[in-house]
Amino acid sequence: MSEKIDLYFSFRSPYSYLAAQLAEDALAGFDVQVRFRPVLPLAIREPEFFSAGNHDRVRYILTDYPRRAEMLGLPVGFPSPDPIVQDMATFTISDEQPYIYRLTYLGAEAEMQGAGLPFAREVSRLIWSGTPSWNEGDHLIAAARRAGLDLNVMDAAISSGDQHKETVAKNQEDQLAAGHRGVPLFVYKSEPFFGQDRIDSLCWRLEKDGLKR
Length: 213
Prior knowledge:
alpha+beta; Glutaredoxin; 4-stranded mixed beta sheet; two-stranded antiparallel sheet; 6 strands; globular
């Protein structure tokens, strides 16, 4: 049977975007199954994370992400709109969040339909390549279609009950139990690999376990 790798992912994370673009090619040839496990970003789960002590971290990400994407040859931009409604001058999180819950629950539905990682790849690329008004028109419909999914069917599914909310809550519990709260986080045999720049370490571990390319 294939080995399992859990990928904990946030649609608000630029590094999750990079991981989604890299993971399939990097893991091709290994007998593994990637389980896409979307989580809500820390800005929603832990608003206090954006305290004064973390402002420098945010500024670093805003500098590092574009150069990392450019180095990898991936399209780069900043979300328009941001998946989270947040005042970036004060880092205050709005009580009204029209995007991130829907995106996260759609990710859970995509995984239920067997296309979690392809959906994450297409939608995160749409958002983090700087597509203007990615939330309007047929942008998301087309992204879902490229992943082999029907967005209207997915929206109907996430509106039908609390299953997706419960799935995301379980993902968040399991992520913390794996030993890290950040994203992207790969977990293989209870061993966490944090960051899109640790995919090579994950591949090294797979090879050490005899999973040849």
